[in-house]
Amino acid sequence: MQTLGEIKKRVDNYVGKFRALKAEIARVIVGQEEIVDGALLALMAGGHVLLEGVPGLGKTLLVRTLGETLGLKFSRVQFTPDLMPADIVGTNIIVEGESGAKMFQFQPGPVFTNLLLADEINRATPKTQSALLEAMQERQVTVGGKTYPLEGIFFALATQNPLEMEGTYPLPEAQLDRFIFKLLINYPSRSELIEVMRRTTGEGTPHAERLASPEELQEMRRLVREVIIAPHVEELAADILLKTHPQTDNIPESVRQFVRFGASPRGLQAMVLTAKARALLAGRYNVSKSDILAVAKPALRHRVILNFEGEAAGIHIDALLNDIIASLAKEKSSESRDGDKANA
User: Residue 293 pLDDT more than 90?
Assistant: First the structure.
């Protein structure tokens, strides 16, 4: 049984490491604080991230910088229509032994790493996209009937370009569901553009220093799992998820009109785990309602499927999630007034 002092020491260490990592990443990455926070929360929660944004906004640099600050191995795969599953997971090759006999030997692919950047993942065929499914969910790959585990930390960060959709293959829902977060990268502001220019057109470019080890990251992940969440906060997370389903009672009319399928139970797991990581960042050992609300959109926006009417109208899923959160706040306010009347 841990003492209060031991718990406080572990939480303080988590907060210090997280903030130091953010500060070190900020020496290399200009702006994009929300994206850096989201990537770090997902990493602490043990999930994967889907980044959506136009090219040139620093997605590759972000993953490489994460690897540098944590001492993790980094690999990058540029997804193209002719990319094959074996190009990602590896394949068996024929080699000649010392006795001259030929045998198969497994040649690991780039997925055998700690941080994997799957650049423009929607450019590859569904067959190749699915090669990542087993690695992301089970932390292993199967080649030629034999299973090879991915040792240690495995964090996949996939990107897709929302503008150029010709010749692309949308990710299937089963694969989207494996990403704990979907983060939307916005274009930098004028001041951020100027700072990017100054950092990248001078004599040298900044590099991040190593501030934590893979072992320390594993300890931070274990601490996240230990964070307490009260029943009423669990209920809030479950209510948000249920209200993404059009057949649920008392949902916003926009959800009933435009949503075909709601989020899966993995969405609930994503909200709770990342909310626990966020609570620790605030120095708390318990999850608050504000933590759940803060992570709801990145955890659910890729798990809600629009119907034809929603697609045709160009409905943004974040707007639907805002409606859900607003409806829950209205319900709680109504319940509170009813309770006050009963006590009067």
Answer: yes
- Give the separation between CA 172 and CA 233, rounded to whole angstroms: 31
Tell whether 95 is covered by a domain.
Answer: no
DSSP string across 103-116: EEEEEE-TTSSSEE
The pair of structure tokens assigned to 177 is 């569901």
Distances (CA, A) of 307 to 73, 274, 299, 328: 41, 28, 20, 23
Same domain, 146 and 272: no
- What is residue 49's three-state secondary structure? strand
- Choose among 304, 296, 300, 287: nearest CA to 326: 296
Whole-angstrom distance, CA of residue 73 vs CA of residue 138: 19
CA 13 to chain centre: 23
For residue 193, what is the DSSP state? H
Res 319: pLDDT: 93
Q: Please report how the helices 289-300 and 231-242 are oriented relative to each other, as an axis angle in degrees rounded to 10.
A: 30
Q: Which strands, in side-by-side order, build the sheet including 181-184? A: 74-78, 115-119, 155-160, 49-52, 181-184
Looking at every residue in the chain, the average pLDDT score rounds to: 84
Contact of 311 with 303, CB cutoff 8 Å: no
What separation, in Å, do the N-terminal and C-terminal C-alpha atoms of the chain show? 45
Containing structural domain, residue 134: 1-80+113-226
For residue 34, which amino acid is it? E
pLDDT at residue 343 is higher than 80: no
φ/ψ of 55, rounded to 5, equals: -65, 155
Tally of domains within the chain: 2
148 neighbors 108 (Cβ within 8 angstroms) = yes
